[in-house]
């Protein structure tokens, strides 16, 4: 009985810690993004110097001191749930050292202008915290390997976006691709506690603010289909590129990318800086302020913003630095929605932008339920539920025409495969000698 209460207490403390770390991480990332824009205000050409150097520095530090912290964090968390992974690998992927590296290096990436988000890394951070505390409390193996990691990841999404329902759906649809009743109470409680922590410190807010956009049923619903198709095809293309790069390119280019990681990072940094110049300095960072300005109608971004933001996020991922793709994907989707709104003037621009966000996000993740739930909570507009659902599922279907497997799941499987092959080669060498 005492042991049960000890486990519950450690679990509750863990959920509170996830919420607190997510909040501090969010504040630090916001300050880092603000610092970069202060540098850009000095000269728009400054990123041509600092971004390539910064990317090379981050990749060097990542490989030397924090291996395993690169990438968005979601594939690594999903991979840690795979039964093929041994306990040592799981402890490495979800270690506090990797967590610290994830935080520091993502913040550094934003300081140097990377088109990355903090939400994906927060998933790995949440899973790491719960996993580490689970080891401390000696949780049963099943709880430790499944329930706590799922709960930590879900709590990370809930606290990062202030979207508790999306955290639950994300754990079910994206991280586990199934739902075990045994884990339901663990996930729900983690999300609730992390959400309460965020609510207590930051208040009840919508990530992108509240919007009143709506669609009249009938002729205006044509934009749902258009956004769904366009967002799905674009999102599927984005995912396909990331998957192919992750598997490794062939030929001289692939060899150069594998053997010269710092040079690759510097080149990616230079390309990102050029994209920033072409976009009027709007493609740097998570894209939160740009997406919000589009929704609010305060600032008119260039018509190429969506494509340039998409390209900037691809380049940031290829560079090998830590950072997520969720917030940048929402921002790119907002840009695509704004493009569609220019052509379909009979539909409220805000509605088209929201539909562009959900469609592109669903196309990237191929997790349609998570997509429409997270966007619904981000904008605080329940009148758009049905259009969001429809656009999300249309986008998911279209995305699969280009990319047959979900992005995060595929990256996780590649991660597991690379670890297994490394382990097998190590065993072979041991037998040889």
Which structural class best describes the helix and strand composition? mainly alpha
Rg over CA atoms, rounded to whole Å, is 21 Å
Strand content: under 5%
Helix count from the secondary structure assignment:
19
Query: What distance lies between the first and last C-alpha atoms, to the nearest angstrom?
Result: 51 Å
**CATH T-level fold name of the largest domain:** Clc chloride channel
Arithmetic mean of pLDDT: 83
Helix % is: over 70%
**Regions with little confidence, pLDDT below 50 for 5+ residues:** 178-182, 422-433
Summed up, the domain count is: 2
Shape: globular
CATH architecture verdict of the largest domain: Orthogonal Bundle
* Number of DSSP strand runs: 0
> Which sequence of SSEs, written as H and E, runs from N to C?
HHHHHHHHHHHHHHHHHHH
Please render the helix and strand layout as text.
Elements: H1 2-42, H2 47-65, H3 74-80, H4 87-93, H5 96-111, H6 119-137, H7 141-161, H8 164-175, H9 181-202, H10 222-247, H11 251-259, H12 261-279, H13 288-296, H14 305-318, H15 326-343, H16 349-365, H17 368-379, H18 385-402, H19 407-432
Helix pairs in contact: 1-5, 1-6, 1-7, 1-9, 2-5, 2-12, 3-19, 5-6, 6-7, 7-8, 7-9, 8-9, 8-17, 10-14, 10-15, 10-16, 10-18, 10-19, 12-14, 13-15, 14-15, 15-16, 16-17, 16-18, 17-18
